[in-house]
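Lab notes, practical 5.
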Amino acid sequence: MSKAIVLLSGGLDSTTTLAIAQRDGHEVHAMTFRYGQRHEIEVDAARRVATAAGVRDHVVVDIDLRTFGGSALTSDVPVPKDRHVDANRHGIPVTYVPARNTIFLSYGLAWAEVHGATEIYAGVNAVDYAGYPDCRPEYIAAYQRMADLATRAGIEGRGPQIKTPLITMSKADIIKLGASLGVDYALTTSCYEPTVHGVACGHCDSCHLRLKGFAEAGLKDPIRYREPKQ
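Output from the prediction step:
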């Protein structure tokens, strides 16, 4: 069985991506980041997901991006609430974390080389998060070229391939695919500003996108929200 690194945030997209990696026949090694984000909830969710999926191993890497700030997720900048669901398509949102995917992929690349993993799976999506520059197909392609040049495995022609199976999918299609693979979305979290008990706010961009995705998929979102959603 070939090995794959999965970047696992505990969110809907990365959890679906993990299920895809397992469907594809890989032994999964999951990597989660405690990067100075506003809450520990997503790390807890990642642990739940990894345990439920029975991954080969799961590591939590500590990186303090609050040292730099520059994002509503790593500073005291307010998280936007109740914006139109298409707002992210116009400009780069304040929830963008500078160079986050570059940092995460680099850690994943290092671990992949150590393990001899053939793939690195990342749940990036260019449809719902069009405002994030490091979620675009051209960015992933550029990173792949760099990875092939930057590692011993790449130079020897056996470097890992970066897989982004969700990159052009809508949130509804991601949810439907995950449901078909048996993903338990009750284990996941998406909210940028949940309560200490993990109850989603229902008002941030991520909550809106998640709720819209479940509605369009014709499925009920199993997580809890602070206020009933219509």
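Observations recorded by the TA: The beta strands are 3-7, 27-34, 57-62, 119-121, 161-163. The chain has a mean pLDDT of 93.
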